[in-house]
Amino acid sequence: MARKARKETTSTLLSITQxxxxxxxxxxxxxxxxxxxxKQAQATFDYECFAYCLLxxxxxxxxxxxxxxxxxxxxxxxxxxxxxxxQAEGKLFSGRFISxxxxxxxxxxxxxxxxxxxxxxQYNSFCFHCQEAKRPEAFKIKLDIHHLxxxxxxxxxxxxxxxxxxxxxxRQKGCDPLEMKRNKSxxxxxxxxxxxxxxxxxxxxxxxFEISExxxxxxxSTK
Length: 223
Prior knowledge:
It is built from 8 helices and 7 strands. It is α+β, with helices and mostly antiparallel strands and 223 residues long.
């Protein structure tokens, strides 16, 4: 029987828990390899990592801002890479990961506190709260060692709302839609500028500018 599709999320900030019936982390080296894989995935998918915990031998936890990218695609890349390295007998990740949307100050603080735990484990350094993570689209976040302050802002626009906003923005800027389609440099500049004035997801930007989500990600990562 086919698995049910995951419900579409409304927040880009997610708490992720992945379990395994097998021993995920045998030693320091396994945990270090997982961190390298997380860094590689971050470079590929341009997500922000707010916290991670690799203390447990059978579970690892993450708090990520996907910036509109598919969490299923991100996790598939991470799990496949680690499984390839681990070379365990049988299937290392037999169950699906659990994702929880974080939509409020209380929820984010509670999740970070759960993940950023202090224990007597020799692997305590593998349980980390990233103070420098950039704010997700749906929140304004100020992070420092002693305090976490969050204010909710406007939710993401749907495609129709974003289309109207883009048309109005282009009229104000005097942009010619046909010229923008022909001129990639102009299009890329428009994507950068429009993203600053809206909180559209990468998927929505791709639909508006008629390019793929991954292309939008590459354009936005180029200064």
